[in-house]
C-alpha cells in the first residue's frame, strides 16, 4: 500500500490511457493520487468526432475533459505546470525541475509514475520523464520515492520484460469511462477499434488484454543518467 502516488504526464488524457487502471486501483483503496499535467494539450490534432473544438477552444475543452476524467478516476488533486503543448523539451531544465521538486517536497509521495525518458515516442513524454528522473535523482536515496516508468513504441522490447504488470480488469470500466471523458481525443479511435473488434475476435481479445494490463519499468537510481538527458543546474 502506497502513502501517496504522484503521476506526472504532459497531456490531458495521458493519465487515463496510460495509467487509468493503476490510478483507479489506488484511489479505490483510499490512496491519494496527485496528477501533475504539464500542458493543456492545446496542440492536439484530434478535434472530436464530429468536430467539437477549434484551435482557440481546445485548451479549455481539454481541461474540462481532464477534470471529468479525474473525477471518474478519483483524483482529487490536479495541478497544471502551465507549459505550452509540444514545447516541454525546450523548457529550462532548472525551471522545470524546480517546479517538480516543490511539488514532491510538498506532498511527499511514496511512488511517482511518469513516462520513460527514452522509450515513450512523443518528445513531450520523453522530456518530462527526463525531468522527473533528474529531480528524483537529486533527492537523497533514503527519502526518494519509487519511480515507475511507462514505456511504449516500436523499440520498447529493448527494455526487456517489465518489472511490474498490473491486472486492472477489476477497474476496467472506470478506466474506460475516464478515457471516454476525453471525448475530443478518444471518440474517433474508440469507434474505429470497436468496428475492428466486431469484425475480428482476435482484435477484441488483444484489445481487452492491452486495456486491462498496465506495465511498468522501475527506474533504479544506481544506473547512470541515460544519454541525452541534460542535467538540471545544481543537480548531480
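^ Assign residues to that structure.
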Amino acid at each position: 500500500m502506497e502513502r501517496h502516488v504522484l503521476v506526472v504526464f504532459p497531456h490531458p488524457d495521458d493519465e487515463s490511457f496510460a495509467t487509468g487502471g493503476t490510478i483507479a486501483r489506488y484511489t479505490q483503496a483510499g490512496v491519494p493520487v496527485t496528477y501533475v499535467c504539464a500542458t493543456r494539450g492545446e496542440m492536439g490534432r484530434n478535434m472530436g468526432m464530429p468536430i467539437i473544438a477549434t484551435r482557440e477552444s481546445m485548451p479549455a475543452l481539454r481541461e474540462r475533459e481532464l477534470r471529468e476524467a479525474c473525477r471518474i478516476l478519483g483524483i482529487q488533486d490536479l495541478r497544471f505546470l502551465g507549459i505550452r503543448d509540444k514545447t516541454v523539451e525546450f523548457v529550462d531544465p532548472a525551471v522545470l525541475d524546480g517546479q517538480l521538486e516543490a511539488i514532491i517536497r510538498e506532498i511527499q509521495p511514496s511512488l511517482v509514475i511518469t513516462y520513460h525518458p527514452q522509450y515513450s515516442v512523443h518528445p513531450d513524454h520523453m522530456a518530462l520523464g527526463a525531468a522527473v528522473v533528474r529531480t528524483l535523482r537529486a533527492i537523497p536515496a533514503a527519502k526518494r520515492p519509487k519511480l515507475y516508468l511507462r514505456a511504449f513504441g516500436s523499440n520498447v522490447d529493448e527494455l526487456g520484460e517489465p518489472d511490474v504488470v498490473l491486472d486492472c480488469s477489476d477497474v476496467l470500466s472506470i478506466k474506460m469511462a475516464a478515457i471516454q471523458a476525453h471525448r475530443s481525443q478518444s471518440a474517433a479511435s474508440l469507434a474505429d477499434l470497436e468496428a475492428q473488434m466486431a469484425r475480428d475476435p482476435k482484435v477484441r481479445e488483444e484489445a481487452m488484454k492491452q486495456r486491462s494490463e498496465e506495465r511498468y519499468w522501475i527506474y533504479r537510481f544506481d544506473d547512470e543518467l541515460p544519454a541525452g538527458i541534460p542535467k538540471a543546474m545544481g543537480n548531480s
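The helical segments are 14-28, 58-73, 93-107, 123-137, 172-181, 183-199, 201-212.
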